[in-house]
Amino acid sequence: MHLLDTEHPSTPTANQHTSQIWELGLLIDSNPKLPLEYTTRCINQVVGISDADSLEVVTQAYRHGIALIEELPFDIAVSYKKELERRGISCEMVPAEEAEAAPRTSLEDSSDVWELGLLRNAHYSREHTSRCLCQVVGISESDAFEATSQAYRLGVALIDEFHSEHVEYFAAELTRLGIAVCVVPAGDE
Q: How many other C-beta atoms lie within 10 A of the C-beta of residue 170?
């Protein structure tokens, strides 16, 4: 049984209302049996989110074991969950929390320097990842291959530090190409 099954049941309890919004999440175990493309297509067809959003959900679930598909009214979430499970895709529903929005650090809030990190991605070869880094970020082939090798060994590698407008563009373009990256303010531990 998945941990979420015991913490947040898929059926509402007495203090949970079916009229509230529920989160529908995708569960992927450590040894996924279904191809990424199949799961992406099913989510696109059943839930109706874009191909790109479906791929992002599935990619996040493959990396982290779970990812939010969509926040939906209870009856719609149940319907989507049943159809996805009929297609062999594991899902979980939990009530959406009505939490106060925490202040988020935005790249637009500052002209400070940001670090662009490369995350390990087993879906693409080191050569493909390095080539994308050279083309998008403009670093040398040796620097790109060194960053890629470090990310494959350690899970993450610093590509370089950039001003906010540049790092935002680089992160978006690399993500579009399927390269997993992270952005953090320079100097954060």
A: 22
For the CA atoms of 129, 144, 65, 90, the dihedral, rounded to the nearest 10 degrees, stands at: -10
**Any idea which residue has 């080191």 for tokens?**
126
φ/ψ (deg, to 5) at 136: -85, -50
3-state secondary structure of 139: coil
**What is the tens place of the pLDDT at every residue in 142-168?**
999 999 999 888 888 999 888 887 888
Partners of 24 in beta bridges = 70, 93
Tell if the pTM clears 0.85, that is, is over it: no
Residues 6+ away with beta carbon under 8 Å from 27: 2, 4, 61, 65, 66, 90, 91, 92
d(CA 158, CA 143) in angstroms, rounded, equals 10
